[in-house]
Amino acid sequence: MARYGMALDYKNCINCKACEVACKEENGVLLGADKHRIWVGVNEIEGVWPNLSISSSSFLPSQCQQCDNAPCEEVCPTHATYYDENGVVRVDSDKCILCSYCMNACPYDARYVDDRTVTVDKCTFCSDTRLARGLTTTACQNTCPTKVRTFGDLDDPESEISILLKTRDHFSLKANLGTEPKLFYLT
Ligand code: SF4
Ligand code: SF4
Ligand code: SF4
Which ligand is nearest to the Cα of residue 63, counting in written order? Predict the structure, then answer.
């Protein structure tokens, strides 16, 4: 048992989208599907047309925040959304009735409808794929050329992520909502 989380050195993101492609490949998401499991937000574009620029720190790579106090789990009427033994928020597609309550409740817009199963899906920290095969990295982490993501066990004081969070300042998105995300953005 672990308590998985992810640290993102987001200022290193160059918006190459390798993470999006790797996630789709690993988790069977259709190529071309937008904002399915993972995306890179562009915070702001500076300048005046036609002299526009985007600084690298304007990219905000994102995915499900794996909240410890997840509104999506609270509202799910069938308990299709649940915390697994590693604290990962998951969806049991057999129980999902596509009521969309969770999609409306998620403050991070992290859920989508999988057209093939006609149920809700989202980032699973690669639990069904890479972790199930005994790997210790996620596809998005593994492929990133600038090493934005560090995935690991928050309960292990010796893990790379625990050491990063002890030694680097960090923040969570919409922390004021009390969702207690397990994604941490390093400053
Ligand atoms: Fe649920 Fe959204 Fe939090 Fe993910 S980010 S655990 S989908 S509320
Ligand atoms: Fe639960 Fe599915 Fe409804 Fe979401 S859409 S709240 S996972 S039953
Ligand atoms: Fe996709 Fe896995 Fe990264 Fe989640 S952890 S965004 S499922 S590659």
Answer: 3
Given a cut of 60, whether residue 56 has pLDDT beyond it is no
Q: Where are the beta strands (DSSP E) in 29-187?
A: 38-42, 46-48, 51-53, 59-63, 81-83, 89-91, 112-114, 119-121, 149-153, 170-171, 183-186
β pairing state of 89-91 and 38-42:
unpaired
pLDDT tens for residues 97-146? 999 999 999 999 999 999 888 999 999 999 999 999 999 999 999 999 99
**Ligand 3 pocket test, candidate residues 125, 144, 149, most atoms within 8 A of CB:** 125
Q: Domain 4-186 is of which CATH architecture?
A: 2-Layer Sandwich (3.30)
Query: Cα of 28 to ligand 3 centre, how many Å?
Result: 11
For the chain, the structural domain boundaries read: 4-186
Neighbouring residues of 150: CB distance < 8 A, sequence distance ≥ 6: 6, 7, 8, 9, 141, 160, 161, 164
